Amino acid sequence: DDINDHSPVFPKERVTFKIPETSDPGSRFPLEMARDLDIGSNKIQAYSISPRNEYFNVFYGTRITGKKYLELVLEKPLDREEQAEMTFSVIAVDGGSPPRSGTTEIDVLVLDANDNAPICTQEEYIKQVLENTPEGSVVLTVLATDQDAGVNGDISYELGETVGESELAFVIDPRTGEIKLTKPLDFEAAQTHELSVRATDGGGLSAICKVVVEVVDVNDNAPELAVSSFSSPLPEDTVPGTVVALFSVRDRDSGANGKISCALDDQLFFSLRPAYKNYYELVTVSALDREHTARYVLSVTAADAGSPPLTATHTFTVDISDVNDNAPVFNQTSYTMYVRENNAPTVFVGAVSAADADVGLNAKVTYSLAPVAAAERPSCSCISVNSENGHVFVLRPLDYERLRQTEVTVSASDAGSPPLRANVTVRLVVLDENDNAPLVLYPAQDSSPAPTELVPVSAEAGYLVTKVVAVDADSGQNSWLSYHLLRATEPGLFTVAVQSGEVRLKRPLTDRDSVKHKLLVLVRDNGKPPLSATAALSALLLKDFSDVRLPHSSPPADEQDDSLTTYLIISLVCVSLLFLISAAVFVARKVCKSKELKAAHVLYGADNLQSGLADAAAAGTLPRAYCYEISLTTGSGNSEFQFLKPILPSLPPQHCATGQGPDGEQEEHFPCVPVSTEDMAPDNAGTVSARQFN
């Protein structure tokens, strides 16, 4: 159904009329009608003038032949002297809802004395032209006559404004009215061309006729083949009758030139089947075998019924895809791989490989570890296989002492649907490394004191004292152990068997040998590098085993050392405190003495001491005939006596010196005691200390 989607369009936006002033009212001037591409009620319904004037009106009518026409009607005589020119618009309105309109401008020039308009010999010219007519060919000639003479009778021709391809395809001779081609016509682009020709005389009067050019088709277009769907590759198990391709054919020519027939070259495995209208199906007619033929090249030819016929060929290349009918096959029935213990994580140990006779995805092999059945013992979770290349890795370090070998099942699966698979057993053998030091079983090497072995003093050389027992968790030569005496109280007294670990006396015991001996035995394996352990033991030499009293439990050596350290710290603290107290008392005493000496009266100085001593000697108070000079200083810590020479006879033991005290009474300062000459032996300087004197 048509909708009002086009507005009326006049061929020209501006039209000029030259009208003689002698024109009578009612004179009609033909106008080119506006063109509306819509149909039915949406076509042009009415014309009007804007702005309205008293001279002209527009008339829209139908001729006897049924053709519509448009005329400009003069309503009032013109007067060139009153108004020589006038301009207004003619509006064409269609019947759509809402209505659409088109406008053309009318320019009227008032002339004198030309009262006859040209008349075309035909209102409509129709001409058929082959689409292969060469450029420049004359299509037809338009002819118009005018009863006027002179300039008013000279007629010129021009084409009205056209739409689409017609505008550029034709040209008219303004003098002769010949219409020529400016380019070849194409039936497939436009089958008809409508032209409007205006014939105008020298006085400005004109007539319009219509020219219709019908293009006649020639067979100049080959058939065209358009593929709608195409399936390739096809599985080799495709059933007969399967649609491989759907395509359509068309020919832009008409009549017999547009009738098409299709043919297939090879119809042994494929054929063409009409579908509907101009569609065809390419279908299979027999079973396909990829091993016999992996690719089919099919040519479809489409030909029209023209003379000569034109053809088009399209090639379909159908690949036959493989179905998954072959399982992967390993290149070995089983695999054995080796890895040393304490390996690095994710270490590469080997690879498995399988091949598939199929092609494409059916031949793409992926590897994985096959799941273990619930009834079976789960395999080691330390093995991984690369799904792309089959490389086998050990994910974590292994311990030979815990796991010596393990087996896993590797599955090779193709990418078919459903996938096919094959399994193979992979045995992983762990190689031993010397990673375990010897373990001494006897004597036990724990926190308790080393065990003591009793040896009679009467034992001879070769006497079995004890045997060191050790084991090594490694295997092979890594577990071969040798025993060596590392340290002993008397190295020449004991010997250790290298292979058995037996500790024996190297010589007979003597009285000079110590009663208790300590031994340290080295146990070493045969690995590279070797690992070792030590065993500590003690030997006690006894004369009589019945008197043996061995402590069953004694504090450990570490605890004894801790107790001794504690006692030493306590003793050191006590001594330090005593020293500090003594020093404080001594200093306090010295300070007190110093204060007393400052306050006392010294009666015997250096000058009168000799006289006092002499008096004392005369009185018989000195035991010997010696004179002592006492030198006292208030700041000295010690008082010294200077030995001079004997000047007095021996005196009886009495008080040697007296003096006056602070209260005026006589008091003894130095008690006189019997002193021998040896006791008061002077030093090199002839001075006897006060300590000796006292």
UniProtKB/TrEMBL annotation:
Pfam families recorded: Cadherin, Cadherin_C_2
Mode of membrane association: Single-pass type I membrane protein
Species: Toxostoma redivivum (California thrasher)
Protein name per UniProt: PCDBF protein
GO CC, any one term: plasma membrane
Predominant place of localization: membrane
Transmembrane segments: 564-588
GO biological process assignments: homophilic cell adhesion via plasma membrane adhesion molecules
Localization per record: Cell membrane
Residues annotated as domain Cadherin: 11-120, 121-225, 226-330, 331-440, 455-553
UniProtKB keywords: Calcium, Cell adhesion, Cell membrane, Glycoprotein, Membrane, Repeat, Signal, Transmembrane, Transmembrane helix
Coiled-coil regions listed in the entry: none
Database matches in PANTHER family: CADHERIN-87A (PTHR24028), PROTOCADHERIN BETA-1 (PTHR24028:SF118)
Gene Ontology molecular function, alphabetical: calcium ion binding
UniProt keyword annotation of tRNA-binding present: no
InterPro entries found in the cross-reference section: Cadherin-like_dom (IPR002126), Cadherin-like_sf (IPR015919), Cadherin_C (IPR032455), Cadherin_CS (IPR020894), Protocadherin/Cadherin-CA (IPR050174)
PROSITE patterns per record: CADHERIN_1, CADHERIN_2
Record has Lipid metabolism as a keyword: no
